[in-house]
Design a protein that fits this description.
It is a single chain. The chain has one domain. Strands 3-2-1-4 form a four-stranded antiparallel beta sheet, covered by helices on one side. The chain has one helix and four strands. The protein is mainly beta. The protein is flat, with a radius of gyration of 17 Å.
Length: 83
């Protein structure tokens, strides 16, 4: 597993459609404003994550809020055609 630290840059609420409330969340790698952030910045000086969520999930994210992001490899699926 590899851990990174990102900060929310923006949350854009979109016009609801059907029963969905879409929001686009944009994050960037943290910069060195604290000891921990300086350590993360040394390994990850730049980075950008953007995703769209539905429902109330978008309200979870606030600009300026920091999040750890863990990258864990997914095991290769077993070959279902093997006998």
């Amino acid at each position: 597993m590899t851990r990174a630290k990102f900060v929310v840059q923006s949350v854009k609420q979109h016009i609801p459609w059907a029963d969905k409330k879409p929001a686009t969340v944009e994050l960037s790698a943290v910069s060195g404003d604290s000891k921990e952030n300086k350590e993360f910045f040394a390994s990850t000086p730049s980075g950008h994550i953007e995703f769209t969520v539905y429902g109330d999930v978008g309200e979870t994210f606030k600009p300026g809020q920091e999040f750890y992001v863990d990258f864990t490899p997914v095991a290769a699926p077993a070959d279902e055609t093997a006998s």
